[in-house]
Amino acid sequence: MPEPGAEGAPRTETKPQLISEQDALVLDTFLEKPKSLDNKARREEEKIYERKRRYLRQLPAETVQVMFGHVMNEMLEDEHRFQQRNEYLAELGRPTHTRNHLTTAEIINAEISGKPDPNHPKPSSLIQGEIFELLVDIQAKNEGYRTKNKGLTPEQKLLLEEQSQLLLAVAHSPEVFGLTQFRAVRNPDLAWIQVDQAGNLVIKGIAEAKSTDHLDSRAYRQLSKTGFRTTLADIANAINNLEDADLHGLKGFGKNGTLITIDPEVIQYVVVCKGQKPTNHEAMRKFVKPTNYDKHPLTNTEQEDFARILSGQDHTVMLESPFTRDEIISLTKHLLKNVAEQARP
User: What is the predicted pLDDT for the residue at 59?
Assistant: First the structure.
């Protein structure tokens, strides 16, 4: 692994700023409190409750700002897609679509008032996915299934974290890095990386956070053999073969830099809300919905295959978050109001 700080001042590991205790106490009010009358069951509920409180206190201080940026970015991309569709329809000589052109603040406030605009993305859906993803990453760090890198200095760990985030950024927005051939590919929410003996990066685990009450055709295509693992392998191969990685914003990678590989037995974690994980094959099959309102719903064979994958096959592990879906929805509604404050002119 390249020595950190070789081209400038040494890297120093700084603790991330976390949300204030005052804000955390507000978030606590959306958690389900222990209520069992049975002593043993109540003790277990109390453990889970404290675990959730602990995780909330590990949220970054800029959580609301991150949510706002995520919503703003999606609204801009949605407007771009809308314009592109109309340009295409105009070229075909067909009628173009119309809709109200609302600001991000107007779209958010419309949803808060109970009258979401049907022609724009729902901000709450974006925030729900984002907050659940943050909590899943915190869970992974606390519970030990996130890849550990023993023997690294704090500076090397910091560099590795930066490289992990950079790799995910490439996977989510490949066109930004000049890898336009990977536009609109399937990418995981999280990726966990280890350093091998040669100093190269090995993707050991990937995770997808699903706060919905079912998994659909989109999720199947993400988790199948042609999904996340294939996408990441293709992107890694493209990066490894770059002659001019620096010009792509990928300094330190490419033919003359750190190489990226995918572990042949990379584990796919699917994390769902508490109480959502099916307990048997029949329940698993019902948990799998055949369509995501797309043109390619799952066949009966694909539904069976998806249930098989989610039951622990193909290096796939389904885990539960300590947070229930109702808690995530309550946290989302609270954060939506905070994001509305950020969006106010």
Answer: 96
